[in-house]
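quick one, 131 residues, struct below
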Amino acid sequence: MLGTFQQSHLRIEVEAQTGVIGESLLRPSQMRRWLWHVSFSDGLPEELHQGLKFTSWVGPVAVQHQVDVAQPNCLRLLLSQGIDGYHEWYWGEGWVQSRLEGISLLPLNLAQTLSLVSLRQYLALLRQSRD
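---
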């Protein structure tokens, strides 16, 4: 794999309950709403589950994902092709933490930051619509 080894660990505060955060991270229909800059393969199930494999594209770069762990407060994705590594998500009441490590030509820290900001904005919109 061409690229450099990169690692990034970010944690943000969000105004959302644990279950709402989990639905946003584990349900592809919701992921598509806040990861608007990423395209996903068709035919994804209602909820991510262990062993599931799918592809996403960031522009022309394909990234293969294999769901290693999918639990009510944790998601771990093994990555290959455009990124060789893994992406872990942990969340709880009012917070989300993301850990991304891999070898890639893509600027992983920038992509991770944009994703977390987008997730925070999406959760804020959900909260406004429920209030």
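The helical segments are 18-26, 28-34, 108-130.
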